[in-house]
Amino acid sequence: MAKPDDRSDNAEKIQDSISNTRENIQETNHYLDEHADEISGQEQQNLEHKNAKREKAIEGFEEEYQDEI
């Protein structure tokens, strides 16, 4: 028998995702600051692109969160 669809904690899960994604952005920025002399331009560009994608993901999470509450 299939489990019932329980969405009672969706808002909390979305908030956790937002927090985790923001933390990943901060860690990447810290890495870029601390290792600027050691990383290649390509790696820096890739990490900056990844953070831009994370920012977009946060926007989507926030819209989804608003739908849940």
Short structural description:
This protein is mainly alpha-helical and 69 residues long. InterPro entries: SASP_thioredoxin-like.
- State the low-pLDDT regions, or none: none
Rg over CA atoms: 16 Å
Please count the helical segments: 2
Mean pLDDT: 94
Structural class: mainly alpha
What pattern of helices and strands is seen along the backbone? HH
Strand content: under 5%
Major sheet description: none
Task: Tell the overall outline.
Answer: elongated
Overall number of strands: 0
What distance lies between the first and last C-alpha atoms, to the nearest angstrom?
29 Å
Helix content: over 70%
Structure description:
With 69 residues, this protein is mainly alpha-helical. Helices cover 77% and strands 0% of the residues. The chain has a domain at 23-28 and 42-69. It has helices at 10-34, 41-68. Helix 1 runs antiparallel to helix 2. The two termini are 29 Å apart. The model has no long low-confidence stretch (mean pLDDT 94).
Secondary structure: elements and pairs:
Layout: H1 10-34, H2 41-68
Helix pairs in contact: 1-2
Jot down its keywords.
77% helix, SASP_thioredoxin-like, 69 residues, mainly alpha, 0% strand, 2 helices, Small acid-soluble spore protein Tlp
